[in-house]
Design a protein that fits this description.
two-stranded antiparallel sheet
């Protein structure tokens, strides 16, 4: 790539389907795949979708539905054949689900105790809204947590801070 060649940032307008050039700039390139020196940062803020001024209808119900779904993970699976009730994942106990923050950055924090980290709690933070402030699709969030726990797809315990291992 030439040292002073112009670089163009192109955006696809999701409303019109048109591709627009937003900004041209120059940068130094070493030919190694890395930019060297300073390259202007494009300002695309005028082309981003804006968040609404208030949460969408049903936001409180969305938050409460997911809080309740994660509130009792110790009694998650119900067997029709035996009547047995088992936790979401083998070995987990003392599960809690709490809401944190406010729309659109509201999260659900799920903490559990698990044999993989006996000296503290494992925490999964789940974003409840997407980048446009819409309710996030969390249909498989509980199953993904179960799979991570049951397959030991958990960060090393050395990454825990203040007794909390974030995953």
């Amino acid at each position: 790539m030439d040292r002073d060649k112009h670089h163009q940032v192109r955006l696809l307008d999701p409303l019109t389907g048109q591709v627009r050039t937003v900004l041209g700039g120059t940068g130094n390139h070493s030919g190694t795949g890395r930019l060297e020196g300073t390259t202007p940062t494009p300002d695309i803020s005028a082309h981003c979708w804006k968040l609404p001024d208030s949460p969408p209808p049903g936001a409180l119900e969305h938050e409460e539905r997911w809080r309740l779904r994660f509130a009792d993970l110790e009694h998650f699976w119900h067997s029709n054949e035996t009547g047995a009730i088992t936790p979401l994942a083998t070995g987990m106990h003392d599960a809690h689900a709490t809401l944190h923050g406010s729309w659109p950055d509201r999260t659900l924090q799920v903490t559990i105790r698990h044999p993989r980290y006996p000296d503290g709690v494992i925490r999964r933070t789940i974003q409840l809204y997407d980048e446009l402030g819409r309710p996030a699709d969390l249909e498989y969030a509980d199953v993904l947590l179960m799979e991570d726990l049951d397959t030991n797809y958990i960060p090393p315990v050395e990454e825990a801070r203040n007794g909390i291992l974030d995953m």
